[in-house]
Amino acid sequence: MEAVMSFRATSRVSFQAVSSLNNRPKFTSSGMSLPISRTLMVEQKCRIRAQQSDSKDGSATLSTVGDSEGDALKIKEWEVARLQDEIAASQGIRIRRRPPTGPPLHYVGPFEFPLQNEGNTPCNILEEIVWNKDVEVSQRKERRPLSVLKKALENAPPARDFIGALREANLRTGLPGLIAEVKKASPSRGVLRENFDPVEIARAYEKGGAACLSVLTDEKYFQGSFENLEAIRSAGIKCPLLCKEFIIDAWQIYYARSKGADAILLIAAVLPDLDIRYMTQICKMLGLAALVEVHDEREMDRVLGIDGIELIGINNRDLGTFEVDISNTKKLLEGERGEMIRQKDIIVVGESGLFTPADIAYVQQAGVKAVLVGESIVKQSDPTKGITGLFGKDISF
Ligand SMILES: O=C(O)c1ccccc1NCC(=O)[C@H](O)[C@H](O)COP(=O)(O)O
């Protein structure tokens, strides 16, 4: 039986993917620095599940796998997950995809030794969110396999030009284009707005001159939902919509598109380079913009090394510690990085912690052409006036 994993390897590969379950992966004694997209494996698993559910009598593919093949599959999946964490760590990514687990029964192999002393509590809130998201996405995928989701795309409302809307607003007002966030609550601030009507807030933002909207869809930590995204899209709001979600799997991109999103968020602190490459390609295929978010120099350098990135968000909030410092935007746009961004004509979005016209002027001076703002405007009883207050003038003309 054919193996169920796809590997991509570079010339530095010290690991040979094998294509039969009867063979075990072969390792050399050197390190294992090859990029493997975790997405590829998850998608493959999804395909298997889809094949199973597509099969009328349920007997397709895996149901014929005996115990030993099942064990081999578990071991390979586990090893791939370990490799993915190693690759991520080699790119400075501290966030692990899921809690570390012990090896499957009978495992003998290269990962035995580093396993000792590994804790299984998340290292920070972002890792906790990612671990929960991993479980949530697996469950959602069970209910709606990718094959079903792709069909649903035929009925999705067309994708609109998110980046074009930001550029146009920037040219029209001479100020950074506003991505106004529909945000009920957050882990750092708790509930921001008790009386929360997402469509009403979205309308108020549009009236106030927002170029685009960001809609939080995470339920557990932000009290958002995909229903909110769908409701805003079907209410006839013209501003293109960013699906503000913690994306760890390409399936989520298709899901966001099926719910009417025009853009999605990719967080460099969570996603290895190969995932970002792969996911931005999927976005292009679906007509979506990808806002690739960075928080420090290393993440910025990684993202600048990826071809085809058009939109970079600099988050002033450290998603691990919640510390907010708007000088982060300035720091990451100084020197060669800023130069490269201008050469590549990348739009930079200043994100988080923006409350006053002085804050907006500061990040604009640093080089941003757009800003992403939640708390300071969603908390206002009239978010339209909140926007005017934030910019120090009416930007709705
Ligand atoms: O906002 C949080 O507490 C938070 C915690 C963990 C991960 C992400 C988080 N927020 C996402 C964002 O970056 C903001 O929603 C967005 O940039 C708007 O920020 P703000 O204007 O400060 O509400």
What's the topology here?
Blueprint lengths: L14 E2 L9 E2 L10 H17 L12 H24 L34 H19 L2 H7 L9 H12 L3 E6 L2 E2 L3 E2 L6 H11 L3 E5 L9 H9 L6 E4 L5 H9 L4 E5 L5 H14 L2 E6 L2 H8 L6 E5 L11 H7 L1 H9 L3 E5 L5 H10 L3 E4 L1 H4 L4 H9 L6
Parallel strand pairs: 3-6, 3-12, 6-7, 7-8, 8-9, 9-10, 10-11, 11-12
Antiparallel strand pairs: 1-2, 4-5
The protein binds ligand LARABZUK.
Describe the overall structure:
The protein has 397 residues and is α/β, with parallel strands linked by helices. The protein is 43% helix and 12% strand. The chain is globular, with a radius of gyration of 22 Å. The chain contains 15 helices and twelve strands. β6, α7 and β7 (241-244) form a beta-alpha-beta unit. It has two domains: 15-121, no CATH class; 155-391, Aldolase class I (TIM Barrel), CATH 3.20.20.70. The strands form three sheets. Strands 3-6-7-8-9-10-11-12 form an eight-stranded parallel barrel, surrounded by eight helices. Residues 1-66 have low confidence and may be disordered. The structure holds the ligand O=C(O)c1ccccc1NCC(=O)[C@H](O)[C@H](O)COP(=O)(O)O. Residues 125-126, 181, 183, 186-189, 315, 317, 319, 322, 351-354, 372-376 line the site of the ligand O=C(O)c1ccccc1NCC(=O)[C@H](O)[C@H](O)COP(=O)(O)O. Keywords: Amino-acid biosynthesis, Aromatic amino acid biosynthesis, Decarboxylase, Lyase, Tryptophan biosynthesis. It holds the Pfam family IGPS.
